[in-house]
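Render this sequence as a predicted structure.
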Amino acid sequence: MKAAAAAVQATAPGTPTVGYYNDKCNGSVEGIVRETVKAALNADLTKGAALVRLFFHDCFVRGCDGSVLLDPTYANPYPEKTSGANIGLRGFDVIDAIKANLESACPSTVSCADILAFAARDASGYLSKGGIDYAVPAGRLNGVVSSAADAERNLPGSTFDVATLISNFAAKGFTPEELVIVSGAHSIGRAHCSSFRDRLSSPSGEINPYFRDNILAKDCDAGPADPTVENNIRDQNATALGNLTSYVVPARGGASLDNSYYVNSLNSVVLFHSDWAIVGSNATRRHVHEYADNGTLWNLDFADALVKLAMPPGSTAEIRKTCRATNY
């Protein structure tokens, strides 16, 4: 992929456009989002990964329409956020704070779908120490439909093999290379053991046996029924890593969202079967090597992938007063 995110413009009526809010709310919309995200991440850095994941889980189901934000109601007790595919989804409080700040500045102007897109961009920039930056096309409206069943049908699973992953992403217009690019977000965040417990019995050809037996198995047998584990080996307990410390990719300049995922994949120290699967296939392996060798290229291509993920908009209906509920 070539970096072209900043050049994306509307191609048809209703298509999100870069600079959509420049003449609205005294041009302060993106600044309000950025400052609210910054404050949230300063208080809790883990909210950054949560916002990036929240954006993906919204856009990959019904398009970017804010449907993942809707709470259960009597009429709709099972919206997307209740799906098993959305286990551990977080960051809703940050979106609420952004929406409240924007409603105070300019009521009924900014959609929750656009807020999510801006917040994911700003979280990515924060976590990459400015390495990931791009213009966000905006002007989406919010949908009024949200279904856990839709999330189950559309979101990629952590146990998918590479053929299923490629098919899943192709259904959304993404290439195998873009599948690899988006997977790089697994350099950040945490995962529930239930999402990768199958890996605890995987053969050593698929996962480093020390990592499997002395890190993952021990972490998953400790604490609550379904504990969480850091996605990135460098964020795990350094003492427990033992001889795996040589595999740790330093966070250059303090950036946590980087190309370390690809190095980890090649070293067989990644959590999900789906992570290993893209290394084990000729269709995707060369791209893993490409991004393991070139973090700057991955930053640029990840930005492009997020812009593509946000286009086209999902079903449109309204600008919500609150992101957790429709207006009726």
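Summary. Residues 2-13 have pLDDT under 50 and may be disordered. The chain has two domains: 13-154, 162-305.
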